[in-house]
Specification:
It is built from 21 helices and 30 strands. Helix 1 (13-29) runs parallel beside helix 3, helix 12 (348-359) packs parallel to helix 13 and helix 16 (507-523) packs parallel to helix 17. It folds into three domains: 13-315, 2-Layer Sandwich (polyphosphate kinase like); 329-489, Endonuclease Chain A (Endonuclease, Chain A); 501-661, 2-Layer Sandwich (Endonuclease, Chain A), CATH 3.30.870.10. The protein has 711 residues and is of the alpha/beta class.
Length: 711
């Protein structure tokens, strides 16, 4: 392997991702984070790990079945070696999760929020719980006994199941199971003056003998099976005579029955129960993870609803008001470019943009690509309104957005009924690009407004993820957008564009050419610079090209939130590369690619990451930033993120991360952007955004950054 790929400056993507999730867990441990937010980070950590096992471990498990499974080109590891390393690396993460959970639990108790165990309940409270169990829980349970008359059941993916050894009158030992239905409340609140609750699965576990009243019960625990959910519809047999929505529905039915890849156990796992699950679920010991903390933390969102106003103020992040424009979006964007930075700028401005377009007599058509949407999407509402108002509406909707397939199928049906023209994308690649084109006709003159972003058209995630959204009336970009939608409608993945980068055909080459441009400048003794911000970096050719740039002397800063297979500061390979990441209140999601310095700098915003799938197996769109003021604003954002010494981490050459040095003034980049949003107001007469007077620390921070950080 080393003869083909140099692995001296790269690392395995799966292990890199686990290190990212470890940083999420650190946020749950951070005492400076509000208490309920720490519990949220614990829930995010668990949810991340669940999806990792369903998708990545599931995918590796599938690949392992090939006659000649490939070798990882970043680490030289076989598939088996990768899986073994993943299982081994997961154990300390689970141990850490247990430790952090009990720390948070103790602090909750000191603040009158009691996550109770059954052993902590009084006699009267046990009677209360028994009454609740008999009236509200027992009628909804479906208990199972595993014996020669009752085969081992199919356990649903991630469903919690109470399991125990049960012995009948004939002294025959077997297993009893009680799956916990999603229709049950996640917890039961005790009749106390404080917020006190017991998780429903714990109540079921305690009253297990009431269900199996003819058996002797022992060794009960709570288990959950994680199944492979890595379905690739493009790899399935596709019937071209079958409507694609019907095809997707068939695939979704298969997902719940895929092979187990992990078993989680809360409590003590009896050896007999272990052997049964290993045999029936085809699991190894390495795939069974025993823990003391809950298997799922999805209950915390119900817990938040129980907090008093004071508790919510004390234990959660304070709300903030996103910056907004009180103007006509169509009029503004027709005159000048606009950049929105979510969630610091209000996503409602994009919704307003669509609403105005749906109702304006000047708008003749709307074209948009959709990947993930909110449950109650007003984006869909205004697209439907536009079609019903007689406008031509074309929607390119990706039905295979993982875990959103069902929602997207339903949205597609609604859009079609409203008169929208639908494009479902391609059999072999997913359409992930975020682009919207508005066509206007004023006084017989046709003009366009193009919006291209780094994130989804999703009202909910726009409050949780940081993303950039560019609106431009540049006609050259509009012509590329017109070409893009024409190519998508005619299944042409190899179209040519003058301004946009569009994967999978040309995007990667254009990115490589821009890196080569900086290499040439460095070789010629000219100033050279690269700054990338992305979610992941795993594409081998890009990694090698960045190493080549580093060796040429190009100064490179990578802001990579999650997977980073490139190791920095390796002598002779990556010594001019620095890798930073920020894990904080919001999920860093924007993709920015900047090349050069000073007046020569070129900036692109993109929907795509530096991953093989993004560059070669997805339709992604990157747009150049041509407006000088917006370009400067983006470069300032990058400068702030690179200087974050509160939530920022640096990737070391050994693959581990270190917190940035605790220097003064302390800078939390996300808090900085929140403060910036608070300090901006709108002058409606001029229709521009201007800053209000800054606080003194804010000014000192700007001066410090200007003196110490070079863009």
């Amino acid at each position: 392997m080393s003869d083909i790929f140099d692995t001296s400056f790269t690392q395995n993507r799966e292990l890199s991702w686990l290190m990212f999730n470890r940083r999420v867990l650190k946020e749950a441990e951070d005492l400076s984070v509000p208490l309920m937010e720490r519990l949220k980070f614990l829930a995010i950590f668990q949810s991340n790990l669940d999806e990792f096992y369903m998708i990545r471990v599931g995918s590796l498990s599938d690949i392992a079945r090939l006659k000649q499974p490939p070798i990882d080109n970043k680490s030289g590891m076989t598939i088996k070696e990768q899986l073994d390393a993943i299982y081994k690396a997961t154990v300390p993460l689970i141990d850490k999760k247990d430790k952090v959970f009990f720390q948070i639990k103790k602090q909750l108790e000191s603040n009158d929020i009691h996550h109770c165990e059954i052993s902590q309940c009084s006699t009267s409270e046990l009677k209360f719980l028994e009454n609740i169990f008999k009236r509200k829980i027992l009628p909804l349970l479906s208990p199972l006994v595993i014996d020669r008359h009752h085969p081992f059941p199919h356990l649903l993916n991630k469903q919690k199941v109470v399991v125990a050894s049960v012995k009948n009158k004939e002294n025959l030992l077997t297993l009893g199971m009680i799956p916990i239905s999603d229709t049950l409340d996640k917890m039961i609140f005790l009749p106390r003056d404080t917020i006190s609750f017991v998780l429903t699965e714990k109540v079921v576990q305690h009253f297990f003998p009431l269900v199996f009243d003819k058996y002797q019960i022992s060794d009960s625990c709570i288990v959950s099976i994680t199944r492979n959910a890595d379905i690739h519809p493009e790899d399935e047999g596709f019937d071209f005579d079958l409507d694609f929505r019907v095809h997707m529905k068939l695939i979704l039915k298969k997902r719940s029955r895929l092979a187990p890849v992990r078993m989680e156990v809360e409590g003590e796992l009896d050896e007999k129960i272990r052997r049964v699950f290993k045999d029936r679920a085809k699991l190894s010991d390495a795939q069974i993870f025993v823990q003391k903390s809950p298997i799922s933390f999805d209950y915390i969102f119900d817990l938040l609803d129980k907090l008093s106003p004071k508790q919510r103020m004390d234990y959660t992040e304070p709300p903030f008001q996103s910056a907004s424009l009180k103007i006509s979006m169509l009029d503004y964007c027709a005159r000048q470019d606009l950049l929105l930075f979510y969630p610091y700028d209000d996503f409602e401005l994009f919704v307003q943009f669509l609403k105005e377009s749906a109702n304006s007599n000047d708008v003749v058509s709307i074209k948009i690509s959709l990947y993930r949407l909110a449950i109650n999407s007003r984006v869909i509402q205004y697209l439907c309104d536009a079609a019903q108002n007689g406008k031509e509406v074309t929607v390119l909707i990706e039905l295979r957005a993982r875990f959103d397939e069902k929602n997207n199928i339903e949205w597609a049906e609604m859009l079609e009924k409203s008169g929208c023209n639908l494009i479902y994308g391609f059999e072999e690649v997913k359409v992930h690009g975020k682009i919207c084109l508005i066509t206007l006709k004023r006084a017989d003159k046709i003009s366009y407004i193009t919006q291209i972003g780094t994130g989804n058209y999703n009202e909910k995630t726009a409050k949780l993820y940081t993303d950039l959204s560019l609106f431009t009336s540049n006609q050259a970009i509009a012509q590329d957008a017109i070409t893009f939608f024409k190519n998508m409608a005619t299944s042409n993945l190899q179209g040519t564009y003058n301004q946009l980068w569009v994967a999978p055909y040309a995007y990667k080459n254009q990115l490589m050419e821009m890196i080569d441009r900086e290499i040439e400048k460095a070789n010629g003794g000219q100033p050279s610079r690269i700054i990338f911000k992305a979610n992941s970096l795993s594409e081998r050719d890009i990694i090698d090209k960045l190493s080549q740039a580093s060796q040429a002397g190009v100064k490179i800063d990578l802001i990579i939130r999650g997977i980073c297979c490139l190791l920095p500061n390796i002598k002779g390979r990556t010594e001019n590369i620095q890798v930073t990441n920020v894990v904080g209140r919001f999920l860093e999601h924007a993709r920015i690619y900047a090349f050069g310095e000073g007046e020569d700098v070129k900036v692109w915003l993109s929907s795509g990451d530096l991953m093989t799938r993004s560059l070669t197996r997805r339709v992604e769109v990157a747009v150049p930033v041509l407006d000088k003021a917006i370009k400067r604003r983006i470069l300032d954002m990058l400068m702030i993120m690179l200087s974050d010494n509160v939530k920022g981490h640096r990737l070391m050459k050994n693959g581990r991360h270190q917190r940035m040095k605790d220097e003064q003034p302390r800078l939390n980049s996300q808090e900085y952007f929140i403060e910036q949003a608070r300090n901006f107001v709108v002058v409606e007469e001029q229709k521009v955004i201007v800053p209000t007077k800054k606080k003194s620390w804010f000014k000192r921070l700007i001066d410090h950054l200007a003196a110490n950080v070079r863009i």
